[in-house]
Amino acid sequence: MNFKLLPSIMCVDWINAKNDLDIISERVEYFHWDLVDGQFAPDFTMGTSIINTIREVYPNKGDFHLMIEEPSRLFSSFNFQEGDRVCIHVECCKNLHRDIKHLKEIGVSTGVALSPATPLSTLEYILDEIDRVLILTVNPGFHSQPLVKQAIIKIKNLTNLLEETAMYGISIVSDGNVNLKTIPEMYRGGSREFVLGKSGLFKGDIKYNFDKIVDLLARLESGEEA
């Protein structure tokens, strides 16, 4: 299957976190870590002590989404490991190219994230340095926010841009209000990686929700889902 599911750990039921983590750990390669600093976006999420504690127990690789102003000042705080992936925001970096090069020197797979209103033109001189683009389909910060419909158009426009520039190795990640209703449009637009939060996975029966999403994507991939 040519799609990837990335469960957002900030959306687990923290009273029953071990139960949620046990269920998803055996089903996915990556845990998606949303880091919010309260400056670029409202609210705060997990610190490195929580992340590192969980990573000591579960073998899943890390898919980090840093919603942090000048994230390079905190790179050394994270125990990045072989196979990890890190996305940083165009809007947060005074020198995006330098920060991406720094991440590559650390040894992680690099990506750039765009908020809904940030134009694709900001990627023009960085595409050949990255492995993926994360398109936020909600405004950054809290979980369970409404979908920004214009971001779906951005996914398609990004697909066109990658084809025009022959950047076929760059994957598109959809992040925000990803669920059974929104996945088809995201997939048809060109996204093949999906961050799963409250609206799609961590609400009700996680096993059932995960299986339904896998089934939907398998049908989209085979062309059965029109």
What topology does this entry show?
Blueprint lengths: L3 E4 L9 H9 L4 E7 L11 H10 L3 E7 L17 E5 L6 H11 L2 E6 L17 E5 L13 H15 L6 E5 L7 H7 L3 E4 L9 H17 L4
Parallel strand pairs: 1-8, 2-3, 3-4, 4-5, 5-6, 6-7, 7-8
Helix pairs in contact: 4-5, 5-6
Task: Characterize the structure shown.
By secondary structure, this protein is α/β, with parallel strands linked by helices. It has one domain (4-222): Alpha-Beta Barrel (TIM Barrel). It is 31% helix and 19% strand. It is built from 6 helices and 8 strands. Strands 1-8-7-6-5-4-3-2 form an 8-stranded parallel β-sheet. Strand 7 (171-175), helix 5 (183-189) and strand 8 form a beta-alpha-beta unit. Helix 4 runs parallel beside helix 5 (183-189) and helix 5 packs parallel to helix 6. The longest helix has 17 residues, at 206-222. The radius of gyration is 16 Å and the shape is globular. The two termini are 18 Å apart. The mean pLDDT is 93.
Write a brief caption for the model.
The chain has 226 residues and is an alpha/beta fold. The protein has 6 helices and 8 strands, in the order βαβαββαββαβαβα. Helix 4 links the parallel strand 6 and strand 7.
